[in-house]
Amino acid sequence: MNKKRLIIIISIIAVVLIGAGVGVFFLMKNFGGKNEGNGKLVYVQKVSELTGNSLGNANRFMGKVESQEIVPIQKDDTKKVGEIFVEEGDIVGKGDELFAYDTEAMKMDLDSLKLELQSISNSIASLSASVKDFQAQRAEANEEDKKEYTAQINSTNAQIAEERYNYSVKEKEISRAEEAIKNAVVVSPMDGIIKSIKQNAAGVGEEQNQESGFINIMAAGEYRIKGIATEETITTVYKEMPVLIHSRTDETLVWHGTVSSINLEPEAQNGGGGYYDGGGETSSKYSFYVEPDNIDNLILGQHLYIEPDLGIDAPKDGLYLPSYYVMIEEDGSAFVWKKDEKDRIRKSPVTLGEYDEERDCYEIKDGLTKDDYIAFPDINVVDGNETTTNYDEVMEQMMNEEGGDGQSYPDGQIPDGMIDDGMMDDGMTDGGMGDDVYDMATPEDAE
Question: Is the separation of the CB atoms in 45 and 374 below 8 Å?
Answer without folding.
Answer: yes
